[in-house]
Design a protein that fits this description.
Number of helices: 0
Structural class: mainly beta
Number of strands: 6
Largest sheet: 4 strands, antiparallel
Radius of gyration: 14 Å
Helix content: under 10%
Oligomer: single chain
Strand content: over 45%
């Protein structure tokens, strides 16, 4: 599964302006009942080994503006 995000604001327009991705830091936490996986970068590729409920927390930080935005998206992986 590939997850991606769009960041707009604070003079950032990623992915419309691909170079803007280097102005930001990205952290993804994939949280299940038994595990937490961390990924960094704008477009992580994630493989789920088991069906179940997962929460994906995405955090985008603009260091120049000292701004971080977070969102958690719940979803289910089915066989």
């Amino acid at each position: 599964m590939e997850l991606s995000l769009t960041a707009l604001g604070c003079d950032i327009h990623y992915p419309a302006v691909l170079g803007d991705s280097v102005k930001m830091t990205y952290r993804w936490l994939v949280i299940s009942a038994t595990d937490t996986l961390k990924f960094f970068g704008a477009n992580p590729s994630i493989t789920f080994n088991a069906a179940g409920h997962y929460d994906v927390e995405m955090a985008v930080t603009n260091p120049a503006q000292a701004v971080t935005r977070r969102v958690t998206v719940p979803f289910d992986v089915v066989p």
